[in-house]
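How a chain folds remains the central question behind the approach discussed here. No coordinates are needed to read the tokens, only the vocabulary itself. For completeness, the protein is quoted in full, as a sequence line and a line of structure tokens:
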Amino acid sequence: MTNTIGDIEDADVILVTGSNTTENHPVLSSYVKRAVKFKNTRLIVIDPRRIKLTEFSDIWLRPNLGTDVAWINGLMHVIISENRHDREFIETRTTDFDALKDMVEKFTPDYVESITGIPARQLIEAARLYASANAGSILYCMGITQHTTGTDNVKSLANLAMLCGNLGIPGSGVNPLRGQNNVQGACDMGGLPNVYTGYQKVTDEAARKKMEKAWAVSNLPDQIGLTVTQMVPMAHDGDIKAMYIIGENPLVSDPDLNHAEKSFNNLDFLVVQDIFMTETTQLADVVLPAACFAEKDGTFSNTERRVQRVRKALEAPGSAKNDWEITAEIAKRMGYDMIYADSREIFEEIARVTPSYGGITYDRIDSAGIHWPCPTEDHPGTPILHTQQFTHGKGVFHAIDYIPPAEQTDDEYPLYLTTGRVLYHYHTGTMTRRTEGLNDRVPESFVEISAADADKYNLKDGEETKIASRRGEIIAKLKISEKAVAGSVFIPFHFAEAAANRLTNSALDPVSKIPEYKVCTVKLSKAG
């Protein structure tokens, strides 16, 4: 997030898109609802489903699935044509505005309506409201990123924020809501194939030399590694023989799951490190039991870049160990003495080699976290990014055209499917589906459909329904809901026995390599 969670309540206008915030981020959603109820903040929700947050919104735009670039360009078309953009911010803080202006010229409200289904008058109203804010905050989640155009979607939201000068001030920003508690921290620590900690590129010789010196090694690779979405097909083809999975359950969470199962079964050797036995551990040659969050010391970095302490509350069961201890023990057996006394010593190394963490210490975050970047120990941290300038000087506008989703409906597969979460379960259910009360609330999968589509396909509420895509099929109970829009259905992906990802498309964003979980085509029929 460019701004903080608390900062959301300082916004004049909040735009939420691609985020079912009340169910996926229920604590954070309370900041949005309080801002609306008690501070007269105006709320724009842009989502294909009638999510709970629409009940608090001034404007709800309901786009067709996978049309985000079109409606964002449409907002910018209206803002520029009505001279509502922040000329001073654009001139002093950005570049390439003319290219953006030329691109969005064709995205008239009527043209956008023809792509997105959003009525032209509603698009104009939303554009005027967002542009009117002295401080406008954009919140988004995986409904924006999990597309073949996910990178384009994020860049387009950044375009919109820069166009109206909504960066670098309280109550503003482009704020991604991380899907799990330490996703931000994992990325910060180099859990990506192209960077070391703090996003230092592996292709940067100076960064490599620094890491070689810190770790007392030589000849660190200078080539970018593979993403998981590249590795799985390579396992299928026999190009990857072994895999080591930590804290992930791809046998439920990967797209095109039938293909993924074949890929993992084709490995010669699979190691899985987790806190519970999962669907993926069932295929493993070796399972390494790890400690959970309450059983270890360390730090988490949350969605607002706040680095915080986590403290051991109880002993880990059986032979479970800290993740770092497992990694260190494997390194020793492979010939490298990775020796640390404890998590504090590891964090001290992180601070030494990571400029954005350089001033953070255990003592400084003993009672309250610090937002990176925090380069020195006398630095207070940075709650709001880009207050004076962007990381590389001026912000760059990207002229981005609309590209449709990888799959389009046809006579055989006439409906679009999107996937997501429900309030009572989390990710692949590794933890939540072991909790009796949560299972009472949502015990099984379902397919959410509009009343109009249920009538069209002669399907009844609560009956077993077969859902099929070009990749596989599942059976789940039908749930007729006002949340659904005609032409689209929704299935939560938590349930292995009716895994939504047997249906989803593994087509990737060319830059981020994220699959298009949020749009694929399906057909429905009565089960049996």
